[in-house]
Amino acid sequence: MECINCQYSYRLYKLLPCAHGFCFKCISTMKICSICKAQIKGFEYGTNNYQREYNENNIVTINTKTNYTFVVFNSGDRFEGHTSRDNIHGYGKYWFKDEGIYKGYFENGNINGFGVMKYINKNIYSGNWKNNVFHGFGVMLYANGDKYLGGWKNNLFHGLGTYYYIDGRKPDKRIFSNGYYSKYLHFNLEGHCLC
Ligand SMILES: [Zn+2]
Ligand SMILES: [Zn+2]
């Protein structure tokens, strides 16, 4: 069976209420059936049942068995993962149209906890987040081959950290304060507090 829209898929999901069949990829961005123009209220595949909601022009699809949720935002961003009370919450994957792909934890709609962001510019951050910014311990692999490993606060180097250069220069191991080298050393280089 081929999807009438894209001619690729063999797995056709049956639309509710009209029962026309399309592949998951096509359905995920469709609001009305392209054959009969009925608004899509959900769809089925085997014993899986998906419920569809349209919320401020975002397309929200929920697998009613697993509660796994797929969202296509009006902005072009996409999300799939866990939600709670209309917010992204728990583990998920988020495609930021202009930035990159995030895989990790969310709390009430914000990135919080551990997660990995692969940026379009090829930088990769793996570490802790607080309200959508790097916060806590994290590693940044820069597209040019440099690497930073250490503390972060508000997206800036903060606390003990080491910057490794790809060109063979000696690594910079420092105490950073909001992105800058701190004159006030409260920790030695092993991270033990000197106070
Ligand atoms: Zn298709
Ligand atoms: Zn239809």
Task: Walk me through what this model shows.
- By secondary structure, the protein is mainly beta.
- The chain folds into two domains: 71 residues, Zinc/RING finger domain, C3HC4 (zinc finger) (Herpes Virus-1, 2-Layer Sandwich); 121 residues, Histone H3 K4-specific methyltransferase SET7/9 N-terminal domain (Single Sheet).
- Strands 2-1-3-4-5-6-7-8-9-10-11-12-13-14-15-16 form a 16-stranded antiparallel sheet.
- Strand 8 and strand 9 form a beta hairpin.
- The longest helix has 6 residues.
What about the largest sheet?
16 strands, antiparallel
Radius of gyration: 22 Å
Q: So how many helices?
A: 1
Order of helices and strands: EEHEEEEEEEEEEEEEE
**CATH topology-level fold name of the largest domain:** Histone H3 K4-specific methyltransferase SET7/9 N-terminal domain
Distance between the termini: 70 Å
Number of strands: 16
Biggest sheet strand line-up: 2-1-3-4-5-6-7-8-9-10-11-12-13-14-15-16
What ligand molecules are bound, each kind once?
A: zinc ion
CATH class of the largest domain: Mainly Beta
CATH superfamily of the largest domain: Histone H3 K4-specific methyltransferase SET7/9 N-terminal domain
